[in-house]
Write a structure and sequence with these properties.
Layout: H1 8-20, H2 28-40, H3 42-52, H4 56-67, H5 101-111, H6 122-133, H7 136-140, H8 147-150, E1 160-163, E2 166-168, H9 178-187, H10 218-232, H11 247-257
Length: 267
Amino acid sequence: MAQLTLTDSLRKEYDSLFSSCAVRPQHQGEIDAAVAKIIAHKDRYAALGQSLGVPWTLIAVLHELECGQSFTRHLHNGDPLDRPTVQVPKGRPPGKGPWSWEQSATDALTIEGFTRWKDWSVAGVLYKLECYNGAGYRLYHPSVLTPYLWSYSNHYSAGKYKADGAFSGSVISKQPGTAVLLRRLAEKGECAFVDQPGATPDTPPLVVSYMHQAPTDPVILARAVALQQWLSSHTGIYLRPDGWAGKDTSAAYQKVTGHYLPGDPRG
């Protein structure tokens, strides 16, 4: 299959989509459960990522999509780890095995060029993830943003390859997208990108006090949402605009302004 080229226009598209990505409400629980499981395995992902020079979060979201985070399956395609892969790519890793999950994952990431890749910007990461699954959506069904990145988000509704070369516009992906998982990890402060180093202070909207629970007053909720949206407009800040200005919102406010929200016990 033809490969993508990471052009300037594609970079801008990735940046815009990631910045505006929001989980569809009916999938929020599933996204949060998957992200919690990822964070629970963080040390294992991070150890492999450090040895290969690959962000651990990228390995983790691939593992969720390909294997449901099972450490008994090949990262290449989810085939059982006790024998070489049968699906594409077939016959990986080379040899008879048995292999550890780390050995197999190293093979998968190496043959797909992750260990040679150096661009860990938002666009660089999303490009490698899209290439990992293939460019079929973009090349042959450009009206559908690949669910491998955007499923469960506002950027995807329907359309999926049921098998290699077999696309259906009515089939809906039943897996979360890798970019959607990364966005949620970023919102939790677990994911950073080289082109998103920090925030630049400017004038915020009306500041709300630190909240120990979600507000019921619609005026306060609207102010908190406005604050969260303003904070998320800064480089490297990702917040869910849910109106609950708690720990994460206050931490983001501190990054931007140098101060926690009024009433935050850390301040």
